Every structure is written in C-alpha cells, then in structure tokens.
DNA sequence: CGCTAGATTGAGGTCAATCAACGGGTGTGG
DNA sequence: CCACACCCGTTGATTGACCTCAATCTAGCG
C-alpha cells in the first residue's frame, strides 16, 4: 500500500482524494505470457505496474509483431487513451508474472477534470512516455543494428548504476531483439561481433573490459543519465549518435 | 487574433488568463527551409503553428535524417519538453513559409501549475501526439513500402473529405518519402506499381478510379476518420492492417 | 535420461538503399 | 522568344544488410 502511495502519478495528492481514487482500484495478477489487453478493444481501465515486466506491442494480420516498449514497476499503461476513448492501439502481454493496479478509465477521467495535482502528474507522465517513443523511434530509423545493441547495453549499464562492469540481461534475448527491431538471430550475431571488440557475453551475463567500453554508443538521451556526463572523464563530450 | 483564441489548446480558458498568456506571446515568420530550432538546444519557447508546414526530424552525425512528423496549422511543437527541461530531442524546419505563435516555456510552465483548463487541454494535446507517434511507429515497423504509400494516400483521401477522387500531394515527394521512411527513388517506384493497379498519378495529382480504391490500405487508426466505417458500404470491416 | 524452449550457427534469398545517368519542367538572362 | 542551368523526379543496375529457413546446440527440468 505504501508503494502505491509513492507512485509518481499520485505524488502530492491530498490523502482524501487519493483514497477516493483507490476505493475503485483493483489489484490483479497475470501469469507469464498472459495477454492483459488487446488492440481494438475499448479501454475500460487504466493500469499501473506494481511488479514484473509488461510488453507493449502492435501486431498485424500475418502474425508479425513490433514492440513499442517493455515496461516495468511504476510505469503506467494507457495514459494516452484516457481522453479520446478510441479503440486501443496496442496489445499488452505479461513477460513474466505481473502484478497490476487498475482503475476504471471513467473514474480517472472524472478525477482529472477536478483534481489539478493529478492532471499535472499525468501530464508529466505522458510527456515522459512521448519522449521515450521519440527515442525508440530514433533507434529504429537511424541506427545500425550494432548501434542499437550497443545502445541497449549502455542503457543497462547506466541503469545499473554506472560503475559495475558486470551486467545481466533483464529478460529473454528474443524479447530484447524484438524491442530493438531485429530478429533473435540477428541479435545473436551482433553480440558475437561485440564480443570480438572485447565485450564478453556469456549467456545472459555481460562483462565489460572497462566502464568506457560502450561510450561510443552514447547519445544525448542516455548522456543525461551518465554520472560522467559533462565531466573531463567523458571520452565522448558531443554525444550526437 | 480570433484564430488564436480558437486554438484547441486555449479552448474554454477564461479570457483574463488567456490575455495574460498572450501578453508574452510573439508571432514570427520563417522562410522556406529555415531551421526553427535544433536538437540539443535548450527549449526556451513553446510554439503553435498558425500557417504553413513544419517538419519535425532527427538527424545523426553522418547527415542522415528521419522524419517524425509533418505538422500543420493548429499543431503544437514541443509540448513534451515543457516539463523536463532536457535538451530538445528533435529539429524543426519550415517546409514552406511558416507563421508561428510562440510563448516562453517558463511562462507556460507557470500557467500549467495554476490553470486547470490549460493543463487539461495540454494533456489532451500531448495524448494526441503520443497516439500519432504510435501510429507512425506502426507504419515503419510492420508495413511494407507499398502499404505505407497506400496508407498515406488513403489518409490524404480521408482528410480531403472522403468523396473527391482527385487528390493533390500536399508537399514535395521527397518529403513524403522521408516521412514514410523511404528514399525518394523507392517512393517513385512504388507510385509506379500503384499506377499499374489503376491509381493514376500525374506529377502531384492523384486520381482514384473509385472511392474504394484504397480501402485495402485501411487500418484501425484511419477507419475512424472514414464516413463509411461501420456501414454496409465498407468493403473492409475488419481493418486490421 | 529425454524432453523442450531458447539460443546459436550456417546458407541462401530479398527488399530497399545506393550509385549513376537521364528527363523534363521552371525560371533566368541574353 | 530562345538558350541555358538548375532542381526535382524518374529510371536502371548493383550492392548489401537483414530476414528466412533449417539444422544444431545448450541448459533447465521433470
């Protein structure tokens, strides 16, 4: 319960209205592989991830799918659909066992009309989502396969605190491949080429030769997360990749 | 001035605070080809397009560029950056002569804190932007070149009112090609193949044999704009492309 | 021990990019 | 009014990156 009240979306809300919102909330569990919702459906609820990984993706008739994002604890699903209640544009699937908090869409819509703090928090969230999409977009359109894989590893490295030279892939390689817009085979081959450049890959464990090993793959989005950004230590001051 | 007050972002605002906002607004003109802002800069102002076309794109070091969106009258630039004042993630360029309304970012930020109607409008706008990005994303990842071109023509057809069988390309073919994630050569060749299927292309004028000519390219996003959607007239009821 | 799902490796195919040449409007200056 | 240059778009030939298909391998697990 405390974790719920600590969610960014609810930051700064007065306890009364928070309780009011949570009265209609529901917690659900979804097994690995379960579909949480499908594109084309009407959005009836708004979700927040409490635990686990959720894959957001689009599918087409011939079974192809393209992954928009892989979301985790604290992330929201379907902020954008709250307004225009058009059919859902995406599918969501539980990557592992997932615990979700969900709130009726109509409820959120109602609250947004009156609760200013909530509206501002939501605006901030949606902005973040939008930024992430732009970043994802960039990956797929103007980076090579190798750059995408390097970028992903660097992101992992930065998220894991910037210092540890040993990383662990957070989920299946085929899912990572999909997120990076390539086939598992291609991902595998690309890891091989990185191996030749000194980055050791063993199953799902990665060891970097040094903390600068991935700096070539830095871009302006990632730079802001790096503790060495804008310091003399940064080997790559103009991250324009 | 009336057009400004009719902007979706300002809908329902009380006149006093609207005037307050507009006090700090500025109108600027930009010639065809001019850069309005560049990625990496700090966002100092927030823009609304009053007239003309603006291209939003990302560039990388070796001169490649990928186009996120081509925006027009009434659209906003940089809603998302208002919050986190990180460096801009994109470039904006005037496609033709452009007239912009701009407001200091700090000003908007301030107003959003207090003005609930403005926050709600902004939220709605950002949501729409997010949806558009998802749609654009789908185009590039799980559609063939031909489907993308067909989709673009269909979008044009629907925007032009659903009935006229004669269309006009709104801007340069090379820009359309870029927006659809392909090279001008590829776009040209694809138009040829469509020509063989009965869609007449002559310079920048398109004539459709009948109003259903493009229905194969419909998807759930476009369907909602179609006057024949959910009627017996629709030849393609399950638009799952 | 055998099964299975995920990961790897290899060979071959394909679609769009690239490089290069050409065409045909449009505008300019003589 | 014509000659020329320039830009955009087209067309052709080739390349190459990634996908596809298929076989093999590995680890985890009953």
Explained architecture:
2 copies of one chain form a homodimer. Chain A has 241 residues and is an alpha+beta fold. Helix content of chain A is 37%, strand content 21%. Chain A has 8 helices and 11 strands. The first copy, chain A, has helices spanning 2-5, 15-23, 105-114, 116-142, 145-159, 173-179, 184-196, 220-223, and strands at residues 26-30, 35-37, 45-51, 54-59, 65-71, 76-77, 91-94, 98-104, 166-168, 200-202, 205-207. In chain A, the strands form 3 sheets. The first copy, chain A, has a 4-stranded antiparallel beta sheet with strand order 1-8-3-6. Chain A has a 4-stranded antiparallel beta sheet with strand order 2-7-4-5, with no helix packed on it. In chain A, strands 9-11-10 form a 3-stranded antiparallel beta sheet, with helices on one face. In chain A, β10 (200-202) and β11 form a beta hairpin. The radius of gyration of chain A is 20 Å and the shape is globular. In chain A, 32% of the residues are buried. The model of chain A has no long low-confidence stretch (mean pLDDT 92). At the A-B interface, β5 and α4 of A face β5 and α4 of B. The structure holds a DNA duplex (30 and 30 nucleotides).
Care to give the gist of this entry?
The first copy, chain A, is an alpha+beta fold and 241 residues long. In chain A, 37% of the residues lie in helices and 21% in strands. The first copy, chain A, is built from 8 helices and 11 strands.
């Amino acid at each position: 319960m405390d974790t719920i009240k600590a969610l960014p979306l609810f930051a700064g809300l007065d306890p009364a209205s928070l309780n009011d919102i949570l009265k209609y909330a529901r917690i659900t569990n979804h097994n690995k592989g379960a579909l949480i919702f499908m594109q084309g459906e009407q959005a009836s609820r708004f979700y927040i991830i409490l635990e686990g990984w959720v894959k957001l993706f689009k599918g087409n008739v011939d079974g192809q799918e393209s992954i928009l994002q892989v979301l985790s604890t604290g992330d929201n699903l379907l902020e954008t659909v709250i307004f225009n209640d058009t059919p859902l544009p995406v599918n969501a699937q539980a990557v592992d066992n997932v615990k979700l908090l969900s709130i009726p869409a109509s409820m959120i819509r109602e609250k947004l009309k009156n609760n200013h703090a909530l509206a501002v928090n939501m605006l901030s969230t949606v902005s973040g989502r939008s930024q992430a999409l732009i970043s994802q977009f960039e990956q797929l359109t103007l980076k090579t396969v190798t750059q995408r894989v390097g970028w992903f590893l660097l992101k992992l490295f930065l998220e894991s605190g910037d210092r540890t030279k040993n990383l662990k892939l957070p989920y299946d390689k085929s899912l990572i491949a999909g997120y990076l817009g390539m086939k598992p085979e291609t991902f595998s081959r690309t890891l091989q080429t990185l191996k030749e450049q000194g980055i050791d890959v063993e199953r799902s464990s990665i060891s970097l030769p040094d903390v600068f090993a991935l700096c070539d793959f830095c871009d302006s989005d990632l730079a802001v997360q790096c503790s060495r950004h804008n310091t003399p230590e940064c080997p790559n001051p103009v991250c324009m990749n």
